[in-house]
Amino acid sequence: MRIRPAGSTDAVDALLEELGYPQPDPAVTAARLRAWADDPAGAAYVAEADNRLLGVIAVHVIPFFEREGTWARIVALVVSSRARRHGVGTLLLEAAESFAASRGCLRLEVTSSNHRAPAHTFYQSHGYTDQSTTSSRFLRTLT
Predict the structure, then answer these.
(1) Measured between alpha carbons, how far is 105 from 68 in angstroms, rounded to an integer?
(2) Where does residue 139 fall: left (phi above 0), alpha (psi -120 to 50 degrees), or beta otherwise?
(3) Spatial separation of the C-alpha atoms in residues 126 and 94, rounded to whole Å
(4) pTM of the predicted protein model
(5) pLDDT digits 0-9 by tens, 35-72
């Protein structure tokens, strides 16, 4: 298995669909991958073996507003259902953590829907702590 930067020709559509985000147009997904590759504050990595994509992760660096320094946010992580529990997620997470650390980030954040209990267990097993008792997340869709 190999972890490498994602490219615009990587067919991550099926992976994103497994996460619950259907991709109606592969060309649009490819354009987003190009945008991530061109943004020095972001990175996307894929895991592949035998010319098959097994997973994808995207991470973005953000400057703190209230203090010096930066932090990073994992905005997507999905491992193909056929490849779960084989270390793919761990390797992708390590790539994101390495990217964030190389840019001086002081912490890394990830959010995960309440219905994804196995993902919560995965993150906690890698040292991430559940902050839901100390903070809340609020969303508003903008039109």
Answers:
(1) 10
(2) beta
(3) 10
(4) 0.88
(5) 999 999 999 999 999 989 999 999 999 999 999 999 99
β 42-49/105-110 pair status: unpaired
Gap between the Cα atoms of 71 and 60, Å rounded: 9
Counting other chains too, the contacts that 34-43 makes at CB distance below 8 Å and 24 or more residues apart are 34/8, 36/6, 37/5, 37/6, 37/7, 37/8, 41/103, 43/5, 43/95, 43/96, 43/99
CB atoms within 10 A of CB 136: 7
Helix residue spans in 1-143 (DSSP H)? 13-18, 26-38, 88-102, 117-125
Q: Is the dihedral of CA 51, 59, 25, 137 positive or negative?
A: positive
How far is the C-alpha of 88 from the C-alpha of 81, rounded, in Å?
11
Residues comprising the chain, all counted: 143
Confidence band for 102, pLDDT divided at 50, 70 and 90 = very high
